[in-house]
Amino acid sequence: MQPDIERVLISREQIADRLDELADDVARLPRNADGELLIVCVLSGAIVFVADLIRRLPMKMRIGLVTVSSYTGKTTESRGPSMPHPFRVDARGRDVLIVDDILDTGRTLRLVQAVLASQKPASLHTCVLLRKLGVERSDVEADLVGFDIENVFVVGYGLDYDGHYRNLPDIAVLKSHLYDR
Ligand code: IMP
Ligand code: MG
Known about the structure:
Helix content is about 20%, strand content about 30%. The protein has about 180 residues and is an alpha/beta fold. The strands form two sheets. A five-stranded parallel β-sheet has the order 3-2-4-5-6, with helices on both faces. A three-stranded antiparallel β-sheet has the order 1-8-7, with helices on one face. The longest helix has 16 residues, at about 10-25. Inosinic acid binds near residues 42, 106, 107 and 154.
């Protein structure tokens, strides 16, 4: 995999440092009397981020998983998000934090937010590891953001291109000939 990398955008050390700060921010979000947080992990890209984030959280918590997919095969163009599986998260009356890997067009986050909001949670916040700059997106913002990045297609730390590279420990840009647009 290493020979496929053009450049590392965010190193594993930078990610680890920022996660310490993000965990403090998550701990300060409002929670009701039982203090419990429901973390909704958007699959598959957020798995590595969620795994590292939750081990820094001190409070009682549960995880809910939602599958959203926007890309099919060798493309870096989103086709619009869809949720192929039945939605099994019960957010009613809970303090909820949606965690996703990256905020690009915002369509994924908007879809997940809308479905969870319809369940009447006590509170609903969002956290993304990455946010792409210079992308038009209306009606959607993340409450917590790890890093703002330039508008390039990135892989690693959970993010994939055509299903690969999720296991790279750093966030990187691939050599351009590998992107088959
Ligand atoms: P959105 O719906 O356009 O905001 O796209 C969000 C989803 O698309 C993310 O959860 C990712 O799974 C995927 N995505 C967007 N940009 C990238 C990227 O640069 N690399 C890998 N996946 C991406
Ligand atoms: Mg995703």
